[in-house]
Amino acid sequence: MSRNLLILGAAPDLGELRDTLVRLEDTIIFALIERSQFKHNSDIYKAGKMHFKDGYRGSFVSWFLKEVEHVHAKVRRYNSPDEYPFTDNLPEPVLPPLEYPPVLVDPQNININDEIFNVYVNTVVPGITSDGDDKNYGSSATRDIECLQALSRRIHYGKFVAESKFQDPKTHDEYVRLIKEKNRDCLMELLTNTRVEELLLKRLKAKAIIYGQDLSAASLDADGNINNGCSLLATTASADASDERVKSRVNYDLVVSLYRDYVIPLTKEVEIEYLLHRLD
Fold first, then answer.
1. Which of its termini does the chain have fewer beta carbons within 10 Å around, N or C?
2. How many CB atoms lie within 10 A of CB 125?
3. Quick check: is 165 catalytic?
4. For residue range 26-56, what is the model confidence (pLDDT) as tens digits?
Protein backbone atom coordinates (compact mmCIF):
# COMPACT_ATOMS: atom_id res chain seq x y z
CA MET A 1 0.00 0.00 0.00
CA SER A 2 1.23 3.52 -0.72
CA ARG A 3 0.61 4.50 2.91
CA ASN A 4 1.75 2.59 5.97
CA LEU A 5 -1.26 0.77 7.42
CA LEU A 6 0.11 1.36 10.92
CA ILE A 7 -0.19 5.14 10.58
CA LEU A 8 -3.28 5.21 8.40
CA GLY A 9 -5.81 7.47 10.08
CA ALA A 10 -8.57 7.21 7.50
CA ALA A 11 -9.55 5.19 4.48
CA PRO A 12 -7.13 5.91 1.61
CA ASP A 13 -8.62 7.71 -1.37
CA LEU A 14 -9.18 5.91 -4.65
CA GLY A 15 -6.07 7.45 -6.21
CA GLU A 16 -3.84 5.93 -3.53
CA LEU A 17 -5.62 2.61 -3.82
CA ARG A 18 -5.19 2.53 -7.58
CA ASP A 19 -1.43 3.04 -7.18
CA THR A 20 -1.34 -0.05 -4.96
CA LEU A 21 -3.57 -2.12 -7.24
CA VAL A 22 -1.45 -1.21 -10.28
CA ARG A 23 1.68 -2.45 -8.48
CA LEU A 24 -0.13 -5.66 -7.57
CA GLU A 25 -0.81 -6.19 -11.29
CA ASP A 26 2.96 -6.39 -11.80
CA THR A 27 3.34 -8.81 -8.88
CA ILE A 28 0.62 -11.10 -10.23
CA ILE A 29 1.91 -11.09 -13.83
CA PHE A 30 5.47 -11.94 -12.77
CA ALA A 31 4.21 -14.64 -10.40
CA LEU A 32 2.25 -16.21 -13.27
CA ILE A 33 5.33 -16.08 -15.49
CA GLU A 34 7.36 -17.87 -12.80
CA ARG A 35 4.74 -20.61 -12.42
CA SER A 36 4.43 -21.08 -16.19
CA GLN A 37 8.03 -22.30 -16.50
CA PHE A 38 6.99 -25.64 -14.95
CA LYS A 39 4.60 -28.26 -16.29
CA HIS A 40 1.04 -28.52 -15.00
CA ASN A 41 2.05 -31.26 -12.53
CA SER A 42 -1.59 -32.02 -11.85
CA ASP A 43 -0.84 -34.60 -9.15
CA ILE A 44 0.06 -31.86 -6.65
CA TYR A 45 -3.55 -30.65 -6.72
CA LYS A 46 -5.14 -34.06 -6.10
CA ALA A 47 -6.03 -35.18 -2.60
CA GLY A 48 -4.63 -38.55 -1.66
CA LYS A 49 -1.87 -38.59 -4.28
CA MET A 50 0.79 -38.06 -1.63
CA HIS A 51 0.99 -39.36 1.92
CA PHE A 52 1.99 -37.16 4.84
CA LYS A 53 3.41 -38.31 8.16
CA ASP A 54 1.12 -35.92 10.02
CA GLY A 55 -1.94 -37.69 8.61
CA TYR A 56 -3.00 -34.81 6.37
CA ARG A 57 -5.37 -36.06 3.64
CA GLY A 58 -5.52 -33.12 1.24
CA SER A 59 -3.44 -32.27 -1.81
CA PHE A 60 0.26 -31.46 -1.75
CA VAL A 61 -0.41 -27.79 -2.58
CA SER A 62 -2.97 -27.52 0.22
CA TRP A 63 -0.57 -29.13 2.68
CA PHE A 64 2.32 -26.88 1.62
CA LEU A 65 0.10 -23.79 1.81
CA LYS A 66 -0.96 -24.79 5.33
CA GLU A 67 2.65 -25.21 6.42
CA VAL A 68 3.72 -21.87 4.92
CA GLU A 69 0.82 -20.01 6.50
CA HIS A 70 1.55 -21.52 9.91
CA VAL A 71 5.04 -20.00 9.74
CA HIS A 72 3.78 -16.66 8.42
CA ALA A 73 1.12 -16.50 11.15
CA LYS A 74 3.82 -16.71 13.81
CA VAL A 75 5.35 -13.48 12.51
CA ARG A 76 1.87 -11.82 12.53
CA ARG A 77 1.37 -11.64 8.75
CA TYR A 78 -2.34 -12.20 9.12
CA ASN A 79 -2.75 -9.54 11.78
CA SER A 80 -2.39 -7.00 8.99
CA PRO A 81 -5.77 -5.83 7.64
CA ASP A 82 -4.68 -6.43 4.03
CA GLU A 83 -3.64 -10.10 4.45
CA TYR A 84 -6.01 -13.07 4.53
CA PRO A 85 -5.04 -16.72 5.09
CA PHE A 86 -6.32 -19.73 3.20
CA THR A 87 -5.88 -21.89 6.32
CA ASP A 88 -7.95 -22.10 9.53
CA ASN A 89 -6.70 -22.62 13.08
CA LEU A 90 -3.40 -20.80 12.68
CA PRO A 91 -1.00 -20.35 15.61
CA GLU A 92 -0.73 -17.09 17.53
CA PRO A 93 2.17 -14.77 16.62
CA VAL A 94 5.40 -14.97 18.57
CA LEU A 95 5.87 -11.24 18.01
CA PRO A 96 3.92 -8.71 20.09
CA PRO A 97 0.76 -7.40 18.40
CA LEU A 98 0.69 -4.21 16.37
CA GLU A 99 -2.12 -1.71 16.82
CA TYR A 100 -3.65 -0.89 13.45
CA PRO A 101 -6.01 2.10 13.19
CA PRO A 102 -9.61 0.90 12.77
CA VAL A 103 -9.97 1.94 9.14
CA LEU A 104 -12.15 -1.00 8.10
CA VAL A 105 -15.49 -1.98 9.60
CA ASP A 106 -15.59 -5.71 8.91
CA PRO A 107 -17.61 -7.54 11.59
CA GLN A 108 -18.00 -10.59 9.35
CA ASN A 109 -14.24 -10.89 8.67
CA ILE A 110 -15.03 -11.50 4.99
CA ASN A 111 -12.65 -14.01 3.39
CA ILE A 112 -13.29 -15.57 -0.05
CA ASN A 113 -10.01 -17.42 -0.39
CA ASP A 114 -11.81 -20.72 -1.02
CA GLU A 115 -13.22 -19.26 -4.25
CA ILE A 116 -9.84 -17.82 -5.20
CA PHE A 117 -8.13 -21.18 -4.64
CA ASN A 118 -10.67 -23.04 -6.80
CA VAL A 119 -10.39 -20.55 -9.66
CA TYR A 120 -6.60 -20.64 -9.54
CA VAL A 121 -6.24 -24.42 -9.47
CA ASN A 122 -8.99 -25.27 -11.95
CA THR A 123 -8.68 -22.39 -14.43
CA VAL A 124 -5.46 -20.42 -14.08
CA VAL A 125 -2.89 -23.19 -13.68
CA PRO A 126 -4.11 -25.25 -16.67
CA GLY A 127 -4.12 -22.07 -18.75
CA ILE A 128 -0.58 -20.89 -18.03
CA THR A 129 1.22 -24.25 -18.00
CA SER A 130 1.82 -26.96 -20.56
CA ASP A 131 0.47 -30.46 -20.03
CA GLY A 132 2.71 -33.00 -18.40
CA ASP A 133 4.65 -33.80 -15.26
CA ASP A 134 8.24 -32.64 -14.80
CA LYS A 135 8.44 -33.74 -11.12
CA ASN A 136 9.20 -30.14 -10.01
CA TYR A 137 6.52 -30.41 -7.35
CA GLY A 138 8.15 -28.24 -4.69
CA SER A 139 9.07 -25.47 -7.13
CA SER A 140 5.61 -25.52 -8.72
CA ALA A 141 3.85 -25.36 -5.36
CA THR A 142 6.12 -22.54 -4.19
CA ARG A 143 5.12 -20.47 -7.24
CA ASP A 144 1.47 -21.44 -6.70
CA ILE A 145 1.55 -20.03 -3.20
CA GLU A 146 3.09 -16.78 -4.41
CA CYS A 147 0.32 -16.45 -7.01
CA LEU A 148 -2.43 -17.30 -4.54
CA GLN A 149 -1.23 -14.84 -1.92
CA ALA A 150 -0.92 -12.03 -4.47
CA LEU A 151 -4.39 -12.71 -5.88
CA SER A 152 -5.90 -12.88 -2.41
CA ARG A 153 -4.35 -9.58 -1.39
CA ARG A 154 -5.50 -7.91 -4.62
CA ILE A 155 -9.08 -9.14 -4.32
CA HIS A 156 -9.49 -8.41 -0.62
CA TYR A 157 -8.31 -4.86 -1.22
CA GLY A 158 -11.93 -4.49 -2.28
CA LYS A 159 -12.65 -3.73 1.37
CA PHE A 160 -10.44 -0.64 1.26
CA VAL A 161 -11.97 0.35 -2.08
CA ALA A 162 -15.49 -0.04 -0.66
CA GLU A 163 -14.64 1.98 2.45
CA SER A 164 -13.16 4.75 0.34
CA LYS A 165 -16.29 4.90 -1.83
CA PHE A 166 -18.51 4.79 1.24
CA GLN A 167 -16.66 7.75 2.78
CA ASP A 168 -16.89 9.85 -0.39
CA PRO A 169 -19.20 12.80 0.47
CA LYS A 170 -20.62 12.77 -3.07
CA THR A 171 -22.02 9.25 -2.75
CA HIS A 172 -22.12 8.58 1.01
CA ASP A 173 -25.83 9.17 1.50
CA GLU A 174 -26.70 7.01 -1.49
CA TYR A 175 -24.58 4.16 -0.15
CA VAL A 176 -26.24 4.43 3.26
CA ARG A 177 -29.70 4.28 1.69
CA LEU A 178 -28.88 1.26 -0.48
CA ILE A 179 -27.17 -0.56 2.38
CA LYS A 180 -30.24 -0.12 4.58
CA GLU A 181 -32.38 -1.44 1.73
CA LYS A 182 -29.97 -4.38 1.23
CA ASN A 183 -30.12 -3.54 -2.48
CA ARG A 184 -27.28 -5.56 -4.00
CA ASP A 185 -28.05 -4.71 -7.61
CA CYS A 186 -28.06 -0.95 -7.10
CA LEU A 187 -24.96 -1.13 -4.91
CA MET A 188 -23.20 -3.00 -7.71
CA GLU A 189 -24.26 -0.36 -10.21
CA LEU A 190 -23.12 2.47 -7.93
CA LEU A 191 -19.66 1.07 -7.24
CA THR A 192 -18.93 -0.03 -10.82
CA ASN A 193 -16.78 2.25 -12.98
CA THR A 194 -16.82 0.68 -16.44
CA ARG A 195 -14.29 3.12 -17.88
CA VAL A 196 -11.73 2.31 -15.18
CA GLU A 197 -12.23 -1.42 -15.76
CA GLU A 198 -11.71 -1.05 -19.51
CA LEU A 199 -8.49 0.89 -19.00
CA LEU A 200 -7.30 -1.70 -16.48
CA LEU A 201 -7.75 -4.54 -18.96
CA LYS A 202 -5.93 -2.66 -21.72
CA ARG A 203 -3.06 -1.86 -19.35
CA LEU A 204 -2.88 -5.50 -18.24
CA LYS A 205 -2.63 -6.76 -21.80
CA ALA A 206 0.20 -4.34 -22.63
CA LYS A 207 2.07 -5.29 -19.44
CA ALA A 208 1.64 -9.03 -19.99
CA ILE A 209 2.91 -8.76 -23.57
CA ILE A 210 5.95 -6.69 -22.61
CA TYR A 211 6.82 -8.53 -19.38
CA GLY A 212 6.37 -11.89 -21.10
CA GLN A 213 8.94 -11.23 -23.83
CA ASP A 214 11.99 -13.44 -24.02
CA LEU A 215 14.60 -10.83 -24.92
CA SER A 216 17.27 -13.51 -25.25
CA ALA A 217 15.65 -14.30 -28.59
CA ALA A 218 15.83 -10.69 -29.73
CA SER A 219 18.39 -9.58 -32.30
CA LEU A 220 21.32 -7.81 -30.64
CA ASP A 221 23.89 -5.55 -32.21
CA ALA A 222 27.64 -5.76 -31.60
CA ASP A 223 27.32 -3.71 -28.39
CA GLY A 224 24.61 -5.92 -26.94
CA ASN A 225 21.79 -3.46 -27.65
CA ILE A 226 18.44 -4.60 -28.97
CA ASN A 227 18.04 -3.77 -32.64
CA ASN A 228 14.99 -1.63 -33.30
CA GLY A 229 14.07 -1.75 -29.61
CA CYS A 230 11.39 0.89 -29.87
CA SER A 231 9.64 -0.88 -32.71
CA LEU A 232 9.84 -4.16 -30.76
CA LEU A 233 7.92 -2.69 -27.84
CA ALA A 234 5.46 -1.04 -30.18
CA THR A 235 4.87 -4.33 -31.94
CA THR A 236 4.35 -6.33 -28.77
CA ALA A 237 1.99 -3.73 -27.36
CA SER A 238 -0.13 -3.96 -30.50
CA ALA A 239 -3.41 -5.82 -30.22
CA ASP A 240 -2.56 -7.61 -33.48
CA ALA A 241 0.83 -8.95 -32.38
CA SER A 242 -0.26 -12.56 -32.77
CA ASP A 243 3.26 -13.72 -33.66
CA GLU A 244 4.49 -12.57 -30.25
CA ARG A 245 2.05 -14.88 -28.51
CA VAL A 246 4.28 -17.85 -29.35
CA LYS A 247 7.37 -16.13 -27.95
CA SER A 248 5.70 -14.85 -24.80
CA ARG A 249 6.39 -16.60 -21.51
CA VAL A 250 2.77 -16.13 -20.43
CA ASN A 251 -0.54 -16.16 -22.29
CA TYR A 252 -1.51 -12.50 -22.13
CA ASP A 253 -5.11 -13.21 -23.16
CA LEU A 254 -5.39 -15.50 -20.13
CA VAL A 255 -4.08 -12.73 -17.85
CA VAL A 256 -6.74 -10.39 -19.21
CA SER A 257 -9.51 -12.99 -18.87
CA LEU A 258 -8.33 -13.80 -15.32
CA TYR A 259 -8.94 -10.20 -14.33
CA ARG A 260 -12.09 -9.71 -16.43
CA ASP A 261 -13.83 -12.96 -15.41
CA TYR A 262 -12.54 -13.48 -11.88
CA VAL A 263 -10.43 -10.78 -10.21
CA ILE A 264 -12.77 -7.88 -10.95
CA PRO A 265 -16.01 -9.81 -10.16
CA LEU A 266 -14.55 -11.31 -6.96
CA THR A 267 -13.28 -7.90 -5.85
CA LYS A 268 -16.78 -6.52 -6.36
CA GLU A 269 -18.17 -9.46 -4.39
CA VAL A 270 -15.91 -8.46 -1.50
CA GLU A 271 -16.98 -4.82 -1.85
CA ILE A 272 -20.68 -5.71 -1.79
CA GLU A 273 -20.38 -8.01 1.22
CA TYR A 274 -18.33 -5.40 3.05
CA LEU A 275 -20.84 -2.62 2.33
CA LEU A 276 -23.86 -4.72 3.32
CA HIS A 277 -22.35 -5.07 6.80
CA ARG A 278 -20.83 -1.59 6.95
CA LEU A 279 -23.59 -0.23 9.19
CA ASP A 280 -23.66 -3.24 11.54
1. C
2. 24
3. yes
4. 999 999 999 999 999 999 999 999 989 888 9
